[in-house]
Amino acid sequence: MSGQMSRQEFVRRAVGGLAGAALLGACRTGTPRAVSSPGPPDWAGLRGRLDGPLFLPSDPQYAAAKDTFNSRFDGSVPAAVLAAVSVADVQKAAEFASSNHIGVSVRSGGHSYIGASSLPATLVIDLRRLPGGVDAGGDMMTVSPATDLDSVQTALAPRSRLIPSGSCPTVAVAGLTLGGGLGSDARLHGLTCDALVSAELVLPSGEILSASADDHPDVFWALRGGGGGNLGVVTSMTFRTFPSTDRDVVTVAFPMDAAAAVIAGWQQWQQAADRDIWGMVNITVGDGPGRCTVILATPPGHGPAVAGDMLAAAGLSASSTRTRTLDRMDFVHYFEGGDSARVPRAFVAGSDIIGEMTSTAAESIVTAMASWPGGAGSATAVVESLSGAVGDVDPAASAFPWRRQAASVQWYTEALSDAATDWLTAAHRALGSASVGGYINYPESGDPLARYLGPNLQRFNAIRHTYDPAGVMLSGIAG
Ligand SMILES: Cc1cc2nc3c(=O)[nH]c(=O)nc-3n(C[C@H](O)[C@H](O)[C@H](O)COP(=O)(O)OP(=O)(O)OC[C@H]3O[C@@H](n4cnc5c(N)ncnc54)[C@H](O)[C@@H]3O)c2cc1C
C-alpha cells in the first residue's frame, strides 16, 4: 500500500566454516574459547531423535535455514540448524548442546541487528515451525515465540485488541519482547515486555520452566528487557491485550536547519502530552537535501490540532503537514511499510539512550548526522521518546533499565562501507555524556552488555548464571 511506512522502512526509504561446533568457555558472544571437548558431536544420533529437520553444512537446505534478516551475516557458519516442530525437539537440542559443550543460538524472527540468531559454530534452534500461532480470548493472548508482529496484530484486530509492539511486519514477538519492544503504543501501554504476563522456556538442561510474577519471578524479571539469547529458549508467551482504536497519523516536515530545535521542542512537548499521543523524529542525510520530519499518532480526528499544539508549544514552523485517519490494520500496515519491508537486506545500525534531551543533546544528534560522509549514500537517525507508560514501571522492576531517560536514538544506514561503522563511532562520540547507554534490541557488535542493561547488569548476570551456569545460551553480546 502506498503511503505506508514502518520505522525501519521509514529509515530505509529515507536512506534511499567453522567445521566444528562452538565449544563453551568464558564467552557468551559466539566466539567461544576452546575447552576440552567430550568428542565429536553425534549429529546423526540427534537427528534420529528429533521430529523436525536438522540441517548440517553439507545439507542443501542449510544455507536457507541459517540465513537471517540482516544479510551482512550471511557468511556465518553455524554447526547445525534445527527447525524445531515441538517443545520436545527444543528440549532434546538443548540437552545435546549442553552435554556436547556447544553454544546455542535461538532464532524466532531472525531480525537481530548483529546476526545473534545464527552465530558461528553454534546449534541454531529455529522456532518458526513450532505450533501454537496466536490464541487470543478476552484480554489475554498466548502466542508461539516466532509469530511475526503482523500476524499478532492481524489476529487481535478483529477483536479490537492490540499489544504494544514494534512496527516491522516480520520481527517476531519473542525477540522484540525479550529486548523490551518500542513502538507507537508505548506511551499509552508501555513496552511490549510490560504486557508480558507469563512465559514458558526450556533451560539448557532441557528442563521446562514457567515464569510469571508468581512463578520464578527472577526469570520473569530477566525476560522483560534483558535481551534474547539468554537463560533458555522461550517456547510460549502470554500477554495482556489492550483495546485498539482508529488513529490519526500526522507527518510534519521541517527545514533541515531547524532539526536541533525540532528534536528539543518535540521532546519537551511530547513528555507532557496526553499518553494517547505518540511521536518520533526522523532525520535523514546523504542522497539529496537533508530531511527532518516528526510523525505523530493521535486519537482519530485530533491530528491537526495536536500537530498545531506541538508547533505552538515548541515555537516551530512546519514546511508541510499531512494527516491521515486510519483504522487499526491500516495503521499497522502504514508503519509496517508494505511488502518491501519483509525483504532481507544488509544494514549497519546502532543506538544511544539520551538521559536528558537538553538543547546540547539535541544539537549533538544533528552534529552526529552531519558527520555522515557525503557521497556514501544515506543515513538516518530516529528519535523516540521514552515518556508516558514506559516510565510507569520502576527501572529496577524489570531488566529493561531505561525508564527515567528521555529518548532512544536509532542510527541506521544501508550504505555499506567502512564509512558506516566509522559514522556509528563518530555518532556515539558526538553524543558524549548525553548518551547513557544503548537499546538492547538495537545492539552493536562488540559492545558490552553493561551498555544495554546499565544498573540492571549485575542482577541480570546473577540470574543468567543461576539458570545457565555453563553459558550455553549465546546472545552475541559479551558480558
Ligand atoms: C526491520 C526491523 C524493524 C525493527 N523494528 C523495531 C521496532 O519497531 N521496535 C523495536 O523495539 N525493535 C525493532 N526492531 C529490533 C527488534 O526488536 C530486534 O531485532 C529483535 O531482537 C528481533 O527479534 P526476532 O525474534 O525477530 O529476531 P531473532 O534474530 O530471531 O532474535 C533476536 C535475539 O533474541 C533471541 N531470541 C529469539 N527468540 C528467542 C526465544 N524464543 N528464546 C530466547 N531467545 C530468543 C535470539 O537468539 C537473538 O539473540 C526492528 C528490527 C528490524 C530488523
Automatic annotation (TrEMBL):
Family membership, please give it.
Answer: Belongs to the oxygen-dependent FAD-linked oxidoreductase family.
Q: Does the keyword Nucleus apply?
A: no
- Per its UniProt record, what Pfam families does this chain match? FAD_binding_4
Q: Which domain of life is it from?
A: Bacteria
Location of the FAD-binding PCMH-type domain: 74-244
Which Gene Ontology terms cover its molecular function?
A: FAD binding; oxidoreductase activity
The protein in question is named: FAD-linked oxidoreductase
Q: PROSITE patterns in the record, alphabetically? A: FAD_PCMH, PROKAR_LIPOPROTEIN, TAT
Species of the source:
Mycolicibacterium rhodesiae (Mycobacterium rhodesiae)
The record's annotation in InterPro entries points to:
FAD-bd_PCMH, FAD-bd_PCMH-like_sf, FAD-bd_PCMH_sub1, FAD-bd_PCMH_sub2, FAD-linked_Oxidoreductase, Oxid_FAD_bind_N, TAT_signal
Span of the signal peptide: none
Q: Is this entry keyworded Ion transport?
A: no
Keywords from the UniProt entry:
FAD, Flavoprotein, Oxidoreductase
Looking up Gene3D superfamilies in the UniProt record yields: 3.30.465.10, 3.40.462.20, Uridine Diphospho-n-acetylenolpyruvylglucosamine Reductase, domain 2
Q: Which cofactor does it need?
A: FAD
